[in-house]
Amino acid sequence: MAYQGQPDVVSGEQYRYALTNFRIAHEKVEEQRIQLQEQEKQVALLKDRIALLEGTNQNSHIGVSKLGGNSVDDFSIKNAASALERQINRWAADVIRTPPAPLNILRHAALTDVFDDDPPELNPGAPNPTGIQIQSLLRHAVSKTIAEGIINCLIVTDSPEANIQLTRIHEHIFSRDPTVAAVWRRQTFTAAVESCSVDMSIFFLCENMENLAKVLALDGTDKSIDKSTASGGIYTVLEAAYEFSRMLHGAPSSSGSTVDAFYRAFVPDVASTMNPRQIELVKRCHKTERGEPDRVGATVFPGLVKVSRGPPGPSGVSTENVQTVVRRAQVICECALMGGLGAAAVGVSPPPSVSPPVGAYPNGGFHQ
Questions:
Q1: Beta bridge partners of 308
Q2: Could you report the per-residue pLDDT of 336-366, keeping only the tens digit for each?
Q3: Which portions of the sequence form the region Disordered (predicted)?
């Protein structure tokens, strides 16, 4: 006998019950959709607010320099650093082309500044320095001035004391909350001075290369400042360095809010041991290629590190800074600087013990 299927019908009560549940489920889904739309709207408003605080919603953000945009990335930093490096080299070459004093006097002044007023004793019978040696020492002194005086200090006002205080405030905020520090720093630089004044430039020179400033007549004793002279070209270099510093500190990084970092510069010490993770030789060194130890002859342009907070510790709070090398310091090795004549070529006696390169800040390590 053929199977007789049951008719596919339900009672009116079951139908109404299912219809009611379907309507309730539909209303719940619609309610959740409206809530998600509202959340997306609030998130968009929050992003706009953050962009307003950081200045990223403005096409002409003050204090930001990047080709084709208002953010800064490692590539644009390297390009800007290369341009500044060429300016420093051009200035040093111009000074040596028409030196305002004998090269021996320039050497002594440069070494006194490079070694923080405690230069090593000159070897008896040290030969007269060459132009390339003095040029390299000049570049080292200017690199140190730019690193310590301009990049590592937030230059916001024409007052050195105020700038130092603002730098300390930023370091304190950064140690507590890097995100707040990033917004504070970028907002502060929207009100920074437009350019590096002559008085500020004289302060940088007298603070970091006092002896060379006197020999080159850059210490402000001569009230008539002539930027067209060979020595006076340093003011143009410092103005460019200030613009470079504003680009570093005033613009948000390309990583956005995922990494709240700021930049610092470092200058390896003369006669310090080579560290390939921190330095890059501008001239080929056979000793380094053979694996033999060599030392820094001069730093011709400072290196740059990006400082960010490390991973959270056991308490969930990060206590260490992580420093990532963005651009290695440009260095001439000792043997290349001395032309194969050894340290006696500029009269510098090798120190009994060499300290590690400058640039490793407390609670941080370099990463390549």
A1: 322
A2: 776 433 343 444 444 443 333 333 333 333 3
A3: 348-368
Q: What's the full length of the chain, in residues?
A: 368
Question: What are the phi and psi torsion angles at 299 (to 5°)?
Answer: -95, 115
∠ Cα 153 171 161 (to 5°): 45
**Band of the pLDDT at 146, cuts 50, 70, 90?**
very high
Contact 205, 225 (CB under 8 A): no
Find the angle CA(111)-CA(269)-CA(83) to the nearest 5 degrees.
Answer: 90
CA distance 116 to 112: 6
C-alpha span between 328 and 76 (Å, rounded):
15
Helix (H/G/I), strand (E/B), else coil: 300:
strand
For 2, the token pair is 């053929």
Q: Across the chain, what does the average pLDDT equal? A: 78
CB 103 within 8 Å of CB 97: no
Distance CA 80, CA 160 (A): 25
- Across-strand partners of 198? none
**Cα–Cα distance for residue pair 271/293, rounded to 1 Å:** 12
- Whether 176 shows a pLDDT value over 60: the answer reads yes
